[in-house]
Amino acid sequence: MSSTVCCPLCASHRSYPLPVAGKRYHRCLACELVWLDEADHLDEAAEKAVYDGHDNRVDDPRYRTFLMRAFGEVLSRVAPPARGLDFGCGPGPALVAMGREAGYQMAGYDKFYANDPELLTRQYDFITSTEVIEHIAEPRAVLEQLWACLKPGGVLVLQTQRVLSDERFKNWRYRHDPTHIVFFAEASFQVLAASWQAELSFPHADVAVITKP
């Protein structure tokens, strides 16, 4: 059944309700994005309290291994000393440290922990964002901002678990995090890349790489 709710990624009004566990989700018929109704979002203070409880340390080898799924794509595609931005770097900016150790000119932005808007006015050879876009209520606006910061030929590396069928979504552990409010399908990235006339690849089950023409 179609609804009049507007998809926050592709702006389609063709969607259907997907209620789960008392929460109101919607799924777009055009790009397959799933998003949580705004009425069920945490307020900003409660959202930050969840992030404050994360234990993501810069020197944690397991965390670095996790981030290598995204950062490895940078290493294989962009030679140092290129300029990079890690968007949503969090309180433990390990990927920023990894980039600098590899010889890149690296900056980190985070609205809660490293809020320097000036960083979002500069140009970069690559932008990474790991486990961030599922937290953003207006993903298209934010991704357009990042795309504008990317130089021609640059790469945008996005790491987030991808939503599959509705049935799997209902039983998906990833959905249980109260700060996860937007869930991308493979088709969501395909629609986004097509709108930018950009090259898209899926090197890992939870990584999408979009290359700017």
Automatic annotation (TrEMBL):
What biological-process terms (Gene Ontology) are attached?
methylation
Give the keywords, sorted: Methyltransferase, Transferase
Entry superkingdom: Bacteria
Q: Which residues cross the membrane?
A: none
What EC designation does it have?
A: 2.1.1.-
EC class, as a word, reads transferase
Under the heading Pfam families, the entry gives: Methyltransf_23
Q: Which GO terms describe its molecular function?
A: methyltransferase activity
Q: What is this protein called?
A: Class I SAM-dependent methyltransferase
**Native species of this protein?**
Aeromonas allosaccharophila
